[in-house]
Amino acid sequence: MSVFIDSSSSANLVPEDEVKTLLSIIGVTEGISKADSSEYRQLLAAIHDVAKHVLDLPDYLVRANTGKYPRERIRRPSSSEQDFGNAWAHRFLIRGNPEGQLLKGKTVCLKDNIAAAGVPQFFGTDAITAWTPSSDATIVTRALDAGANIVGTTVCENFCNSTSSFTSAQGTVQNPWAEGFSAGGSTSGGSALVGGGVVDIALGADQGGSIRVPSSFCGCVGFKATHGLVPYTGMSSGDAINDHAGPVARTVTDIALCLDAISGRDDYDDRTLGAPAHGWTNYTKRLQASVSGVKIGILAEGFEHRLVTESVKEIVLKAAFEFSRLGATVEKVSLPLHLEGPAIWTIQQRIAGTMGLLGLAHGRRGLFSTAFEAARGPWTNESFSKLFPSTKNTIINGLSLMKGYPGLYAKTMNIAQQQRDLYEKLFQEYDLIVMPTTPFVAPSNLEWKHGDSPIAALKPSMGITINTAIFNVTGHPAMSLPVGFAPSGEDPSVKLPVGMQLVGGLWQDQKILDAAFAWESANDWREISLSEGEGRKLSLKL
To answer: What homologous superfamily is domain 71-343+408-541 in, according to CATH?
Structure first.
């Protein structure tokens, strides 16, 4: 295609003062003469011609095999078909490969940011129009090939931007153990359905704790594998550094089975370049219910944060010391920079997250959803006004940080690398470290509507990810394992699940699975309680 400036068809579409207007966005108001500005305008018209040409080219899509895997009865569920408030986004059935073995007979649901061809996606919002993918996410195809029956998409929080479960425009999700309490987010619907026994496995996404937090609140096992082990193709992204996909289930065995089914290198996702080839893992066959000789560190900073309630601390300490009885060495360890995790994640996520929300993310190879991009942008007064405060806050924060602190992102990522290196050094001595997944049990759900206070909307999520978010930046594998119940801080008569987070070295996912399997095999978490004074004794042991 010719892009000579004298043949540009876009010349009349570029305003005369466009160059000046564009440069003013970055604070440049002088430095280009009027004559130069006129020539840059011609060059700008030429690049508009190239852009229009690219937009006119056929898109490259890997269409779903709907002949092999037809979609049956796609529908928005009626009130009688809903569970735990509004856990379902769409209900349907895609029957898995009858010859598949790993997930044969398992029912699987998908977080509503995971593409299933022919199924409209909401992404937890009504600020933009729902779009309908024509492709299946890689993990959807792999789950079907492994024999799973996919039974629906489940509500996720607004733009996956909250760890509460009342922010979705499709409705509030209730905790399966106590109505009126949070199911956590942003994989809220799927975790509630798994925790409540409705489906076997939920496929979710985790950018700061969005698998592990709702798993902790809902009494599920939730696993964020090493960054890049599970492909992200066909999923709406928060940021390529933070993006993790993974399973939520009721047992460690189902987590391992699902991981074997969906993990492995994907030619369309450069996050997975370091992963083993798909089909080469044997997490399930290698599971062993033994921690003999394993060294486990109780991370002091993960317990001693001021937000960690005494009851959660005591339950998780009791669970951690159970590893001693099972043959492991359990010791207190310290990594002071862990306390900087929330700050590092917040800056990284606000800047990179804003770039993504504005359609400006770049620098990665992959197959992307042009349907989503078309539905999302450009932002308008109307669409922005419909966003939940958490997403508005991300954009406002990100724009301000990029304007006011031009070197901040680089320094943030340097410190993130320092944290990654320090954790890796710790994993040279210890196989795993443990800490509470969340600092408290599920809070009550807020009844919020547009026009209410933004701070009130954000407050229920504040502090929830103090132990989870940093491992999205560093990429370490992390699991939330249910280890007992603790009383609600708002109503002590209500007992809610507690999650223990197990974190391992990069690509040491098997160690987490083995330790969790050993603990689960020896304990029934539903019967865990503390005797009088036991929590204080455990604290003294540290």
So the answer is: Amidase signature (AS) domain (3.90.1300.10)
